[in-house]
Structures are given as C-alpha cells and as structure tokens.
Request: fold
Amino acid sequence: MSPEIVLDVTPGAAAVPLSVLKIRDDAATEAPDHLAVEEPLEIRLGGMAFTVTMRTPGHDEDLVAGLLHAEGVIRSAESIDVIGHYRGPDGKPDAGNVINVILKADLHVARERLRRSLVSSSACGVCGKVSIEAIRTATAPLVSTATVAPALFPRIAATLAAAQPTFQRTGGLHAAALFDLEGRLLVLREDVGRHNAVDKVVGHMLRTGDFPLADCILMVSGRASFEIMQKAWSARIPVVAAVSAPSSMAVQVAQAAGMTLVGFLRGGGFNVYAGAHRVTTALLEPA
Reply:
C-alpha cells in the first residue's frame, strides 16, 4: 500500500509543488510539477458558521462579496459592514480558511435568504423554466446600447490566456476576466471553480465601487453555464464570452435577460448564441 502523500501547502498559496512521474513515448522521468490548490472556505455571517465552499485561496473577500451579490443578499458595497479573515495572535489578518461577514441589514433575514438559495441550487439546481422565470421576476432584463466589434473577441481571449499565472504553472484552474468595451483588461481572477472565479471578479468590482457593470464584457476560460449567466445578469453585464460552448440553459438565460452570449471563442472565430445585435457585423456584410 502506497504511503499517504502529504502536501506542504503554504497558507494562502494558489499552487503547490509536487514531484511527478512523466511518461513521454517510451521514456519515464521524475520531474517537478505544480498542482492547483483546492481548500474549503468557511463563510460566517455575524460570527456564526453558515456554509463551506471549495475554492482556490486568494481574494476570498471578493469571492464572498460576489457570492452574496449573486444570491441577492447584498446590492452594493454599502450593504457590508465588515468582511475579512479573523485576526491572528499578532493582530494581522489570518490567511486561513475562515472568513466572517457582518452586514448592515438584518443578519437573520440574510442567513435565511442565502440558505434557501444555496439549498435549492445544490439540490437540483434550480430547475429549467421555473428558475429562469424566478430570476426574471427578481432581475429586470438588460437595457444596453453596448456594441462590440468582432475583432475584439479574439483579442480578449488572447489576453485572458496570457494573464493566467497559476494556470500556466498547474494547468488546473479556470479564469474569469472583466474587460471594458475597448478590450482593456479590468480584473482577472483564477480558481478551481469557474463560478468562484466569476464571483471573485464581480466581488472585486463591487467592493471597489465600480458597479454595476453595464459597460463591460465578461470572459470565462471554460464553458458558459446557467450559474455564470445568472451571476453576470445580476451584475448587469451585457456581454459574456466563453472559450468553450454554452449549455442550453445558459442560452435561455441570455435570451431572457437580453444579454449577448459568445461561445467557442478560439482560433480567431466564435459563435454568437444570443444578442447578436451587439456584435457589429460589418465584416459579414457583402461589399
């Protein structure tokens, strides 16, 4: 029986080194590699344990703020009184796996609302048309005059790929990035969970006061899912682009929200699954 492997993970690190056996053709060599770190984050509301989520350490405050916003618990940074890791013996923030949030609103109401949301989404996922109608009731469709030239999408995809430091070491992380309509990178976050990466991006913008995000493009490294589209809709992001394909529910959410959804963004080309009116089509028109 092989001995248990104990990884020496530095608190707060996003990657950890590991010696691996690499097989290439008929050759086997031992070589250094890196793994993406996945650890639990306990979220407390008012000091009371509430829920645990798996994530890659880093930007935990942004992750929690983005999660609370996506679930409708907060609408702006003004709703947060305190958010952060507990202090260590030396008075500095502890880079551990517990973060506490104190809201200015009624904590009991917030806890119950968040509990219902998380239970429903983890059970069957909010299911089909019922879930989309529920979101539509709580969140108005987007009204945006934003347009994006086709040539911009391959450019932001290249920027996303080049700006993933931990992915380049591990190959095991998703990324989400926010761009302005000129293609300038505003913020990028990595995580083992694509939804966490989106929460970190949205939470960062919320906490810095650059909110809502009506003149932005969200780019994700994997596929576009229902959850990603719901989070983007809540943040009022009009355009979402993904390296891979969207799911059927992602397209339905985009249509219900009046959002533009681009997928299969690779090799200089892409597909527009919803909201094609925002993608200027001069290149497609006959001369």
